[in-house]
């Protein structure tokens, strides 16, 4: 069997070990410290610990007869690399160096050639310094009496590193002993806590956390000082080196194993046996801090994160083979598992279900939930008043700015204060609490951020899904209103989508805005009205129909468009003589906007007809509605004024099929 020796002093070295171990070659890894050896304990490799000079390396290589030696030491370990290169030449052993990508040319830090240049620069400055270059160069920095009192040293939490810091005279409260990787937020917190005006780093590249340091320095207003790499050190990029080894030694295929596991409510009783097995078999456990605290992580590497991209990047760069990502509740119920499955494409991914807060809550109150409307407000600004009005029961998964208090207060102000409700706090934890009462009473309480809400509506009525609601359902005054039949046909011509962004220009009573908002539940309607009394009438009808996705804009079109997002659709009910300007403004916002306009006068009809010819597609219909009026004991159908309905749009004019 071929033998490979890896001098692994970096994350790239450990990643290289992970990629070639167990794939048909005998691997020996050389590390300088016991801490480095601990990071390799999960790999089936031989580990040689301790620093060697060129003579010791030569003797050892002569005895081992390696097929190839790989130098994956730190980019700044120039002496170690020189010793490796010399020993390989003397033993006629092939030597390959693994290189790490540096910072881009657009980097905005202050680059200095070496440690002496950095020290000389800092001696001419004032203010605290956060030093993140490790212990190797710490004695040089501390030898300067001008720098020593200003230094905050971030080092590894191992006895040897702590001893170096102590020997250098670093005060205990100026030592930050922590193991990375460090996020930008953690770096920023350290800069704030030390009041550092300078952050000193080496060009460690993205794998060494350089990007996170640079981001934190910019946020804190600190100067980022980068000590450049020794120019003589060249090598092969990690991915290219792995490919070279795979081809030369015909390595067997390897995929990482990742289990996405739902941990239930956080208590032991809501966990599955599958979860216990996934935890036991994992080399590394990943999850939000609360998830990691809920399970036994002893003997496991851990990484606190919840963002799918961050987790995927960590797994890709990690030296471990088997990962379990801990997710709250059930992996199929508003879980991060969906994003993770996509982010982890190419890896061996399995998904384990858990007990969701929905299942747990309804088991506690001994009620079924198959007919309950489920709404997630975790990071979503979802419309829910209409759902409460048209469903016998609604379950809210809360989160972010949508707390139990805020939702209860909104329900109370919308007229649902008398409905029975229940708040479930910290479900599955020792502090679990279920509080029930009327919405108006519960709205006065204070609840934990980990809460769910359940609301029942005994007087619910089914939602009406058609357009053209009866005119008398709307609040009325002297303000003109688009009549029921005209609304129904106009909305059909508008061809709304569920997430449409719609301008209702000249909203009047708000009848069209209400109808659009009911159809485009995931969208937004901007009801634009120049008359204050009509604007208030629109608001009244929006409140009456319990709609949250309508914004009333008082102003004259098209000036009122300026601060609004681009529309996907627009309805022109009243244009106050600005028809042409309004249409041009809509096209400037979105050239593919679909416009529907109503006309009852010959002048407006003529203007719309002329405008329709400037679009790629148009549709014009004249409708006349007749209504009965009594004539003696009979009813006579009497025609109303004719209405012309124009629709015009650019772009495709075909059925939006997926195939």
Give an overview in words.
With 659 residues, the chain is an alpha/beta fold. It has 5 domains: 114 residues, Rossmann fold (3-Layer(aba) Sandwich); 118 residues, Rossmann fold (3-Layer(aba) Sandwich), CATH 3.40.50; 99 residues, Cobalt-precorrin-4 Transmethylase, domain 1, CATH 3.40.1010; 98 residues, 2-Layer Sandwich (Methyltransferase, Cobalt-precorrin-4 Transmethylase, Domain 2), CATH 3.30.950.10; 179 residues, Vaccinia Virus protein VP39 (Rossmann fold, 3-Layer(aba) Sandwich), CATH 3.40.50.150. 32% of the residues lie in helices and 24% in strands. The protein has 23 helices and 31 strands. The strands form 6 sheets. A 7-stranded mixed β-sheet has the order 25-24-23-26-27-31-28, sandwiched between helices. Strands 3-2-1-4-5-12 form a 6-stranded parallel β-sheet, with helices on both faces. α20 links the parallel β23 and β24. α3 packs across α4 and α13 packs across α14. The protein is elongated. The two termini are 53 Å apart.
């Amino acid at each position: 069997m071929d033998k490979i020796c890896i001098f692994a002093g970096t994350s790239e070295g450990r990643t290289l070990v992970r990629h070639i171990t167990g794939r048909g070659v005998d691997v020996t890894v050389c590390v300088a410290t016991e801490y480095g050896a601990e990071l390799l304990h999960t790999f089936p490799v031989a580990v040689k610990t301790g620093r060697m000079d060129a003579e010791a390396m030569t003797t050892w290589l002569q005895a081992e007869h390696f097929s190839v030696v790989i130098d994956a030491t730190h980019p700044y370990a120039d002496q170690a690399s020189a010793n490796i290169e010399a020993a390989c030449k003397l033993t006629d052993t092939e030597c390959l160096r693994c290189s790490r990508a540096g910072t881009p040319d657009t980097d905005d830090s202050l680059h200095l050639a070496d440690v002496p240049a950095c020290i000389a620069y800092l001696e001419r400055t004032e203010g605290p310094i956060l030093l993140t270059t490790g212990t190797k160069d710490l004695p040089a920095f501390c030898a300067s009496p001008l720098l020593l009192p200003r230094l905050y040293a971030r080092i590894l939490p191992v006895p040897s590193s702590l001893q170096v810091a102590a020997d250098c005279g670093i005060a205990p409260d100026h030592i930050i002993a922590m193991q990375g990787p460090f996020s930008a937020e953690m770096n920023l917190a350290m800069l704030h806590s030390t009041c550092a005006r300078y952050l000193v780093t080496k060009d460690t590249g993205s794998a060494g956390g350089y990007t996170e340091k640079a981001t934190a320095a910019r946020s804190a207003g600190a100067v980022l000082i980068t000590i450049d790499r020794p120019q003589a050190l060249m090598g092969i990029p990690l991915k290219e080196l792995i490919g070279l080894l795979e081809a030369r030694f015909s390595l067997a295929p390897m995929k990482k194993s990742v289990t996405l596991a739902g941990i239930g409510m956080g208590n032991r009783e809501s966990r599955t046996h599958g979860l216990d097995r996934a935890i036991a078999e994992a080399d590394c456990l990943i999850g939000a801090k609360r998830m990691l605290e809920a399970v036994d992580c002893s003997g496991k590497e851990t990484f606190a994160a919840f963002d799918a991209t961050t987790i995927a990047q960590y797994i890709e760069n990690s030296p471990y083979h088997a990962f379990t990502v801990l997710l709250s509740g059930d992996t199929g119920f508003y879980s991060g598992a969906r994003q993770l499955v996509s982010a982890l494409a190419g890896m061996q991914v399995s998904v384990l279900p858990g007990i969701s807060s929905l299942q747990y809550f309804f088991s506690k109150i001994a009620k079924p939930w198959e007919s309950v409307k489920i709404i997630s407000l975790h990071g979503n600004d979802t419309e829910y008043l209409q759902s409460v009005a048209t469903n016998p029961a609604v379950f809210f998964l809360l989160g972010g700015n949508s707390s139990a208090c805020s939702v209860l207060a909104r329900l109370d102000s919308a007229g649902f204060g008398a409905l029975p409700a229940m708040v479930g706090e910290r479900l599955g934890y020792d502090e679990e609490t279920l509080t029930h009462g009327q919405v108006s009473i519960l709205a006065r309480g204070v609840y934990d951020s980990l809460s769910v809400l359940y609301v029942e509506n005994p007087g619910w009525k089914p939602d009406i899904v058609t357009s053209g609601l009866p005119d008398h359902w709307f609040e009325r005054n002297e303000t003109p209103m688009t009549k029921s039949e005209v609304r129904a046909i106009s909305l059909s011509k508008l061809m709304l989508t569920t997430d449409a962004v719609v301008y209702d220009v000249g909203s009047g009573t708000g009848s069209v805005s209400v109808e659009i908002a009911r159809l485009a539940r995931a969208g937004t309607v901007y009801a634009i009205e120049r008359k204050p009394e009509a604007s208030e009438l629109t608001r009244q009808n929006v409140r009456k129909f319990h709609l949250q996705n309508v914004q009333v804009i008082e102003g004259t079109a098209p000036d009122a468009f300026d601060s609004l997002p681009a529309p996907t659709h627009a309805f022109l009910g009243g244009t106050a003589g600005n028809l042409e300007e309004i249409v041009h403004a809509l096209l400037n916002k979105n050239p593919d906007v679909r416009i529907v306009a109503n006309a009852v006068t010959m002048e407006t009809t003529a203007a719309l007809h002329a405008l329709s010819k400037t679009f790629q597609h148009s549709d014009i219909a004249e409708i006349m509605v007749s209504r009965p009026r009594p004539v003696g004991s009979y009813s006579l159908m009497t025609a109303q004024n004719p209405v012309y309905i124009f629709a015009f749009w650019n772009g495709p004019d075909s059925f939006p099929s997926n195939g």
